[in-house]
Design a protein that fits this description.
Elements (H helix, E strand, L loop, with lengths): L1 H13 L5 E4 L8 H7 L5 E4 L13 E3 L5 E4 L8 E4 L14 E5 L6 E4 L1 E4 L9 E5 L2 E3 L7 E3 L6
Parallel strand pairs: 1-2, 2-4, 3-6, 4-7, 5-8, 6-9
Antiparallel strand pairs: 7-11, 10-11
């Protein structure tokens, strides 16, 4: 009995672990939006740069799953993976984000790091690179952790 209890306690404490989903040329996902749709709470989405530093165009990511980390990877120190909203109207209607990356309620404790965001637009000229429904914490010179709702960071 003690062995069974220990095994059960160990399973509960360690959890199932987060999956890592890769986005970019030759990776399982070509678009960040597809990786976010496939992700489970707590997963890590690694976004690799496009050839010649080109931007991912028409990016419109709506995050409503908790603890997702979306991070740029595969670039030199000080460089960023470029995300552009060009080619997409960030209307905010229905499930369409009003930003290149938008953390909605339910997307608590999300992380977005290592990106250059440009070209967000909509009919009212208030498209944004990043939008959160509540709190943001700028810890390391770039938007890092986002909270939605009434909780305090």
């Amino acid at each position: 009995m003690p062995r069974v209890l220990f095994a059960l306690l160990l399973a509960v404490c360690t959890g199932t672990g987060a999956a890592t989903l890769d986005v970019g040329p030759g990776k399982p996902f070509a678009r960040i939006e597809a990786a976010v749709a496939a992700a489970a709470p707590g997963d890590v989405i690694r976004v690799f740069p496009l050839p010649d530093g080109r931007a991912y165009d028409g990016v419109a990511v709506l995050v409503d799953k908790p603890r997702l980390t979306i991070e740029a990877t595969g670039v030199a120190p000080g460089e960023r993976v470029r995300l552009s909203g060009r080619g997409f109207v960030h209307s905010g209607r229905g499930r369409t984000p009003r930003a290149i990356v938008q953390f909605d309620p339910g997307g608590d404790d999300g992380m977005l790091t290592g990106f250059e965001l440009t070209g967000a637009s909509n009919a009212t000229d208030n498209g944004a690179g990043n939008r959160s429904e509540a709190h943001a914490d700028d810890r390391r010179g770039g938007l890092q952790r986002l909270r939605s709702g009434d909780d305090k960071p």
